Amino acid sequence: MEERVAVIGAILKDPTRSQSQFNRIVAEYHDLVRGRMGLPLKDKCMSVISITVVGSMDQINTMTGRLGNLEGVTVKTAISK
C-alpha cells in the first residue's frame, strides 16, 4: 500500500474529559506518528493538538475516525496526494 503523509488537527473541548482516551488512541498508532504538538488553552477550557503521521489511507482514516468519535473532540485531516 502507498504511504501518505497527513496532518491531523484536533480540538478537545474540556480536555479533562477526553484527553486520556485521546492519548490512548494516539499511543496505539505510535508507529505512524512522526510528530505531535499540543497547546493547552486553559482560558478557553480547550486543547489544540496537531499530529503528523505517515501511513496508508486505511491506517490514517481509521485513526482519524476513532479520534473523531470521542465526545468533545473535533478532528480534521489534511492528506498528501
UniProtKB/TrEMBL annotation:
InterPro entries, alphabetized: Acetolactate_synth/TF_NikR_C (IPR027271), ACT-like_dom_sf (IPR045865), FeFe-hyd_TM1266 (IPR023860)
Domain of life where this protein originates: Bacteria
Position of the signal peptide: none
Pfam families xrefs: TM1266-like (PF21699)
Protein name: Putative iron-only hydrogenase system regulator
